[in-house]
Amino acid sequence: MASSGLVGRTMDFPPRTPWHLTYLPAGYQWQPATGDRVVINHHRILGGMRHFGGHYLAGDGVNDAGLFCAELFFPVAATYEVTVRPGTRGLTPQDFILWVLGKHATVAELAADLANVTVVGANWFDGNYYPFHWLLMDASGTYVIEPTGGRLRISRNPAEVLTNTPALPDQIRRLNGRLGLTGTAFCAQAVTNCRGTWPAGGNSATRFQQAALRRWRVRPGTVAEMQDFLKSVTVPHNQDHENNYTHYWAVVDRDQTEYRFTSCRGGKTIKRNLQSLLGPRAITFE
């Protein structure tokens, strides 16, 4: 959810390697899992990341230009290309955020560069493949990138919320059905004026509606208000599903490039700001 310059998200994705708040410096070099040439980042990044075999996977993050990006699970709906198009850089879905935040300052700059990469449905270094779509935010607004029809398609996200599958237009259509509207055009006023019962349940369509209602009826404007919402949609830890729970909350102040990382198992919150992180080496905060 994006509101009043803040972005809040829960990380519910179930990989077994732990998530940590991590800093990557400008000039950081990394290898895409496709085996393509090494990428050299232009921007410093602060985000929730996993580390496996010497490689970082970013679940979300903000860079020193104030560009924010987060991945959300997009099974069934995602269609990636099978092979890398000639003359483009090949990336897996898991590589994509590091390329977005490491190489671009704005959404417009990223949009102009999308044709120069091919995202293929291939395994990452841990031997797994994860389909994603992505939430983006900069000073110009909130956007989504979705891999449909084999290509990456970027569009403005007027709802300013995103969850897992289905795609944004389908999520808005379902929300509109709840509001007595038709089509896929988002109507903020209709959401603001909604006085019906809040949707219950934990699937991604319901969570999208919960987030949209909170975004436009309550309009969280402080870190505490954003954290209250994240608590309300947290998936609790269950021993029957050892890794399928909310691993962390993130609340990011994009304007200040400040990131609050809260571990949902330990309850510890770590706050760091890119303005004070200038060192040449990667740092994992625990």
Automatic annotation (TrEMBL):
| Gene3D superfamilies linked to this entry | Penicillin V Acylase, Chain A (3.60.60.10)
List the transmembrane segments. none
What EC number(s) would the UniProt record show? 3.5.1.-
Give one GO molecular function term: hydrolase activity
Keywords assigned? Hydrolase
Q: Which InterPro entries match?
A: CBAH/NAAA_C (IPR029132), Ntn_hydrolases_N (IPR029055), Peptidase_C59 (IPR052193)
| Coiled-coil portions | none
> Carries keyword Hydrolase?
yes
Protein family membership: Belongs to the peptidase C59 family.
* Keyword NADP annotated: no
Q: Please list the residue ranges annotated as the Choloylglycine hydrolase/NAAA C-terminal domain.
A: 6-263
Return the protein name. Answer: Choloylglycine hydrolase
Annotated gene: bsh
Tell me the domain of life.
Answer: Bacteria
Per its UniProt entry, what is the enzyme's top EC class, as one word?
Answer: hydrolase
Question: What is the source species?
Answer: Limosilactobacillus antri DSM 16041
